Amino acid sequence: MGVATFGQTAFGILASKLIGEFEIERWQIGALVTAMGFTGAFLSPVFGRVTDQIGSVRSARGVFVLASIALLVVSTAPNYPVLVAGALLFGVPNGWTNPATNALIVDNIAAGARGVVTGIKQSGVQVGAFLGGILLPFLESVSNWRFALAFFVVFAAAGLIGMWKRTPLRHSRLGSYSVRTRVPVSVRWIAFYGILTGLGVSATVTFLPLFAEEDQGWTTSQAGMLIAGIGLVAVASRIIWGSASERWFGHGRTLQLLAVLSTVAATLLALASADAAPSWVLVPAAILFGAGASAWNAVGMLAVMDYSSPELVGRGTGLAMLGFLTGIGLGAPLLGLSVDRLGVYTPGWIAFATLFACSIVVAGRIHRTGTLAHI
Hints:
Layout: H1 6-13, H2 15-22, H3 26-54, H4 56-75, H5 80-108, H6 115-142, H7 145-150, H8 153-164, H9 185-214, H10 220-249, H11 251-273, H12 282-291, H13 296-307, H14 313-342, H15 346-373
Helix pairs in contact: 1-3, 1-6, 1-9, 3-4, 3-5, 3-14, 4-5, 4-8, 5-14, 6-10, 6-13, 9-10, 9-13, 9-14, 9-15, 10-11, 10-12, 10-13, 11-12, 11-13, 11-15, 13-14
């Protein structure tokens, strides 16, 4: 999960270096996230079917191979068009990783015992963000951004070696259901929640470091620590929320709580941008964001697994990720374009606070439709 989604983290932390080297604008950094997000969004339903057909282990191997190639392409890009091509390539493992890993869990863990495992699995994204926030600025300072990014191929290679010895568990799930079978209504609401959350996640992870540098006067290392902090908090939050959602609150109610935390985080960023709050509020904003929007996938993916029949896990995951990755693809360039045109971050942060607030209502629909499906 960490290596497949690492592109977005890298583009955000290295934004100032990429802008300087390739002589591009902020919206073009956002376009890299768009390329990655839209590719993953469009391919996620396809890979959901592929995973159901070839099995979880082979799918996981494919994710590691493709992520390694994408890291190498981006780190060696001679110009911006090749950088975009690398971002497009990064979208392929990004769209495949959730169907593959969800299928691994369904193949190995019984329903009712998946909360902690799903939280650990989803925390891989934030482990990547945490390591990126710590290691990318350090490695870039001792060498350059290309070496810093290429170094992370080590993690993808290690994952591939570890998975290569696993025995494939299932060859096909496709024979047990009709291709016309529809995923549950609750899963479709999860996809909508994913769109709203993805918009905010994309904008925040991509531009929070640059916002801290440009608008708040932080150093690159300090700004990188914000992303590392989000990652660290989200690692724990995904494990905690996954378990709490399964045992106590229910998936819809937990997603509502995460949306509330995200709304508060975006509001704090808007206040800091408008000089209505001191710069240090970026720290609690990052913590709340890590506990909220950055942790939603653990609960969302757990809900997909619980609301879908086993033979539809791949398709349900693909639909949910279509929504989330569509939001990922749109959020960053919209905020970048807003800052380029208006010269301030405030309207963008207000807009994303509003979207997070809307997701509170959508989570209520997830709770109602998911509960009815289990009565």
